Write the structure tokens for this entry.
Amino acid sequence: MIKSNQSILNKLMVLIDAVIVGGSFVLAYLIKFYILVKGPGIGVLPLMSYVKLLPFLIVVYLIIYLMTNVYTPKRTVGMWGEIWMLFRANVVGLGVLIIALFGIIHGRPYARSVIGIFFILSMCVESFFRIMIRSILRRIRLNGYNKKHVLLVGYSRSAEAYIDRIRKNPEWGYNVVGILDNEVPIGTEYYGIKVLDKLDALEKMVKQNNYDEVSITLSLKDYDYFENSVNICEKNGVHTKFVPDYNSIVPTKPFTEDLDGLAVVNIRFVPLSNAGNRFIKRVMDIFGALFGIIITSPIMLIVALLVKTTSKGPVLFKQERVGYHGKNFYMYKFRSMRVQSELEEKAGWTTKGDPRVTPIGRFIRKTSIDELPQLFNILIGDMSLVGPRPERPQYVDKFREEIPRYMVKHQVRPGLTGWAQVNGLRGDTSIKKRIEYDLYYIENWTFFFDIRIIIMTFFTGFINKNAY
């Protein structure tokens, strides 16, 4: 039933897209030459010249939509994810159209403005229809119709996680009918979903019931049943998914790469492991550090004079920190405390009312001005503008044993500011919480994410209420 409904919906969407693409192209011409200006002027191609392009245009766009998976089911894809996919397909279509009109077809002065209006118009109308259809389907599924009936093979942590997400998102239209498992007693329930039978009953179950999907959620100890389960589902023509039970071992977003036909699962996706991304970030760091040094040089000069004249000792304070790939480096700050012995320095974090902090030091710590010399650390490559804050070696040795995945933060350069810091996790705050934010940053890095964090730093990151 679901497959039939999806097929009908896809055919309907193809028809709608064909009408939208063709209609938008004609309407773009009318908008340009009958609304924006008073009729086509001399040398302007007539409407029929554009109409003759419609068969080519519609076929090309529909092929591109098929190739870019615009018509694949979007039950679990968010609205903006679907619109982004549609936007990318339309950009490709626009590129093909421009190449065809201005690179292949010569001597025909097609108006570029018509092409631009067509792109905006078709994108807006297609997005509107998809939002409308998504809203209708959501309402239908919430009312109990158009459900996708799923059988789970294996009771495990991944089975529970799967059910949890289905319960939180009823608009997806999934209905888990039951679970098969050898270890958990028949009749056991998880949020009303029962264990129906043993794993050996899979073939009988798929033959007797019209399931839309079987999800293999075997626990690690039951993976011996995996191959047989897949074979049974394939033999009976049931769509099959695999939900691996490794969340407690690999609590992140793994991704698969193809190694000459061999699927290799990477435990963690780190965008900055890509050389191109690293280059972009490094260029940004160099220009950002140079700009920061030039802009803040008067402030740094004043602070240097104040530090030097108000307490004995050097202007700058250097401290060993652990950085990129676990290598140690010296991080620089304006000195905000009285000169200490090495033993005193390693005593611990600064606490409220700490007598070691100088009067000027308290101000520059509170406003984060003491961090400005780290712009030079960024310039020489020890640090980045944005990244996890670096810790001292003794704390790294301590946290790597106490906090799971702590050392992952060293897969990128440490930063002057970071996702954790702009969310208030600075100074004397939870290390575990900071690591959660650091890992999110590492796995979701983009150039624009860095820009966002830098902008947020100007509004939230300079005044540090946890700095003493």
User: Anything to note?
Assistant: The two ends are 65 Å apart (CA to CA).
